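Exercise 7b. Backbone tokens:
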């Protein structure tokens, strides 16, 4: 019997193409990268603007802890208000007009009912600032709580509340 011979042909091995690399990126990926960078830049800009806007509020809240008299507290409120509102309007406010201004700046959700606002405690503020006898500890705590609430919720002012006290609104009304 004859042995079968192998019929082998001299063929070369099959070489597959290399898998496509990640580089160069397709145009769609460039759009995704650009959009992501734009969003990151916008978030960083927004955070910086927010930090700048709330800086005076944070400083005032820290300074409130060191306040020992109602006159110092009133000066702190005035400095904080001058940081956000038009100087020509705020600097001249005193007495009942000043306390009314403070009440008006609180948002509707945080507005004091008639019993708990600055205007409702006008006699207390006058006594604390101008009287020789000063305030009791509970009266001082009430004034400090009012101040803290105002610093937390009225600053920075919303555009709708601040617009009536800025120079831009004043120029619009001036004709």
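Sequence design result:
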């Amino acid at each position: 019997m004859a042995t079968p011979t192998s019929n082998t042909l001299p063929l070369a091995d099959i070489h597959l193409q290399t898998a496509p690399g990640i580089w160069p990126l397709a145009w769609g990926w460039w759009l995704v990268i650009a959009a992501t960078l734009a969003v990151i830049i916008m978030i960083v800009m927004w955070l910086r603007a927010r930090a700048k806007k709330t800086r005076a509020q944070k400083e005032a809240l820290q300074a409130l802890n060191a306040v020992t008299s109602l006159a110092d507290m009133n000066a702190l409120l005035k400095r904080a208000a001058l940081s956000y509102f038009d100087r020509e309007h705020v600097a001249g406010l005193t007495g009942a007009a000043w306390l009314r201004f403070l009440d008006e700046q609180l948002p509707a959700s945080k507005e004091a009912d008639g019993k708990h606002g600055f205007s409702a405690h006008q006699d207390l503020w006058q006594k604390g600032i101008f009287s020789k006898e000063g305030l009791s500890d509970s009266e001082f705590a009430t004034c400090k709580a009012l101040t803290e609430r105002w610093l937390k919720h009225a600053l920075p002012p919303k555009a709708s509340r601040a617009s009536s006290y800025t120079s831009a609104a004043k120029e619009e009304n001036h004709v």
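Instructor comment: The helical segments are 27-64, 70-84, 87-90, 95-105, 122-130, 137-153, 159-162, 167-173. The two ends are 122 Å apart (CA to CA).
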